[in-house]
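One such shown below:

_____
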Amino acid sequence: MTAFGAPSASTGTSTTTGSSSTGTGTFTIGGAVTGLDLGKSVTLQNNSGDNLTVSAKGLFTFVTPLNNNSTYNVSVLIQPTGQTCTVLNSSGSINGSNVVSVYVVCQ
């Protein structure tokens, strides 16, 4: 898998001590879409309600931030016509920073 740039901007703060991390505020869920054909779009969903339509390959970030220690679960709500997209690193818990490791691979 190719390395991707990471979406930035956080509305929270975090402090790391040793191997543990504590954070306050809210953090975003995002990552990258690859393989999406020109002119097509894929609609992603986080936690069964925060829908995001992505119309190009590249970085994405869900609009609704989540509190630290919240869980996220990204899925494909609407597949692009003629393609199938799979979500990698689709779920987890926020641990004091923005999540930038959700990858959507379309074929």
